Amino acid sequence: YVSLWGQGRVAEVDVEAGSITRYFDVGKNPGELSFSPDGTRMTVVASDSDVVATVDLSMMTPTVRRHYLGGAASAPRGLSPTALSVGRDGTLYVASSPSLVWRLDGNQWVFMTGPFHGTTWLGSVNGQLIAGTSYGFVFARDGAGWVQLGQGLTLAISSIAEIDGTLFAGTSPL
């Protein structure tokens, strides 16, 4: 699966055949993708339409459901979702401008707070929600708040992984 930024859709690619199998219209400027553990559901952030789209891949004609940050499709735009993570319990978390983190409860977005600037990565390590920023800081969700891990780097956090109990942060140039 490849998000096609300028086309507002995601392509399903048959790598062996070298062809595109089908497209999914998800919203303007799709970015990060995530999949359910069983591979039947894909979630995509579409930053310029303030949409988090969920695609049911288990059907021959998949359904695309759009969740609008800030409420309905007619709500003022500008939250620009950029990163997402699905927790072990299936809870969907989304980071958006200006450095906000949201949780989807049923059909309602719940603001979780985001005390850090420039969230560029969101993920889950051993069931704990982790966020990385464009200023090189890494935060972990601790109860109702966030705890800073480490000192910060000079580059944007682009990925985070846990290997044998140690947390590693990958960076990319600003």
In short:
With 174 residues, the chain is mainly beta.
What does this structure look like?
0% of the residues lie in helices and 57% in strands. With 174 residues, it is mostly beta strands. The chain is built from no helices and 17 strands. It is globular. The mean pLDDT is 80.
Q: Report the portion of residues in β strands.
A: over 45%
Q: What's the overall average pLDDT, rounded?
A: 80
Low-confidence stretches: none
Strand order of the largest sheet: 4-5-6-7
The profile of the biggest β sheet is: 4 strands, antiparallel
**Can you count the beta strands?**
17
Q: Assign the structural class, choosing from mainly alpha, mainly beta, alpha/beta, alpha+beta, or little secondary structure.
A: mainly beta
Outline the fold blueprint.
Elements: E1 2-4, E2 9-14, E3 19-25, E4 30-35, E5 41-46, E6 51-56, E7 63-68, E8 81-86, E9 92-96, E10 100-105, E11 108-111, E12 119-125, E13 128-133, E14 138-142, E15 145-149, E16 156-163, E17 166-172
Antiparallel strand pairs: 1-2, 2-3, 4-5, 5-6, 6-7, 8-9, 9-10, 10-11, 12-13, 13-14, 14-15, 16-17
Structure keywords:
174 residues; globular; single chain; 4-stranded antiparallel sheet; mainly beta
